[in-house]
Write a structure and sequence with these properties.
16-stranded antiparallel barrel; 3% helix; mainly beta; Porin
Length: 266
């Protein structure tokens, strides 16, 4: 299963990890965005995220750096976004460049090229009638014979607009149908503003909102595996309810794996 999601994980390492029901096509009732966005989340001097914004409060530069173990290798992901008339049109990382297309005001696709101009993949985005993102399809240009040729992410929301579930499906090379792979359940939230700018597969789509509030419990299950991962988040807030610190307690099959604490800077 890990091989099936190899290409997807290149773009989604930190997506949403830090990061009463209604119909999915109903927009949340008058949700409010935070008055400020976090600029840095720091676990250590070697493990952090950095966000820079343009005048429209969209992410223009993003850096994610992490260390696999206390003495392990340091990995770094850097992203630069280019906007024209409020629309995200191009992006670049150390290894890729991205070209975006639109249908109306919504991003319809993102074509990803390697630095030697080889097409790597195309991401297609679908929205419901309320304008909420409900599906992302990754179509891999040159898939491995024994790997995945496509990955699909299906999103659903609670009535208050918070993300409820993300289901990952995969399509094997040579096949046409998608099969279930992994599901992330966002079980509970606090009632405070979430100041972390949303992204999906490291695309900071203009206007994208996945979580108005801060998640408290995220449960992850994979098809064909008995393993269950539980992320339990706890926060310290300022006087206006904005997080100053986040503790992520990670449990695997009911056993504590690790606790990661990050400090928010505005």
């Amino acid at each position: 299963m890990k091989k099936m999601f190899r290409s997807l994980m290149l773009f989604s390492f930190l997506a949403l990890a830090f990061t009463s029901c209604s119909e999915d096509n109903e927009p949340p009732a008058e949700p409010s965005l935070p008055g400020k966005w976090v600029k840095r989340i720091e676990v250590s001097d070697k493990d952090f995220q950095v966000f820079e914004f343009n005048n429209a409060r969209e992410v223009s530069q993003y850096v994610s750096q992490w260390q696999s173990a206390p003495s392990g290798e340091i990995s770094r992901f850097q992203l630069s976004n280019e906007f024209v008339n409020g629309k995200l049109v191009r992006a670049a990382t150390q290894a890729t460049r991205v070209v975006y297309t639109y249908e109306g005001n919504n991003v319809a696709s993102a074509v990803i090229y390697t630095n030697n101009d080889r097409k790597f993949a195309t991401h297609y985005f679908k929205y419901n009638t309320g304008g909420r993102l409900v599906e992302v399809l990754e179509d891999i240009a040159q898939p491995d014979p024994d790997g995945a040729s496509g990955v699909k992410i299906l999103l659903s929301y609670y009535g208050n607009g918070n993300l409820k579930q993300m289901e990952y499906q995969y399509r094997k090379t040579g096949e046409t149908t998608f099969k279930p792979g992994m599901v992330k359940y966002y079980e509970t939230y606090d009632d405070k503003p979430n100041p972390v700018k949303a992204s999906i597969l490291e695309h900071f789509l203009p206007g994208l909102v996945l979580q108005y509030n801060n998640p408290l419990i995220i449960r992850t299950e994979s098809v064909g595996s008995a393993d269950k991962t539980l992320n339990r988040f706890a926060y310290k807030y300022d006087e206006n309810g904005y997080p100053l610190e986040r503790s992520n307690r990670i449990e695997v099959n009911g056993n504590l794996s690790t606790i990661i604490t990050g400090i928010y800077f505005y």
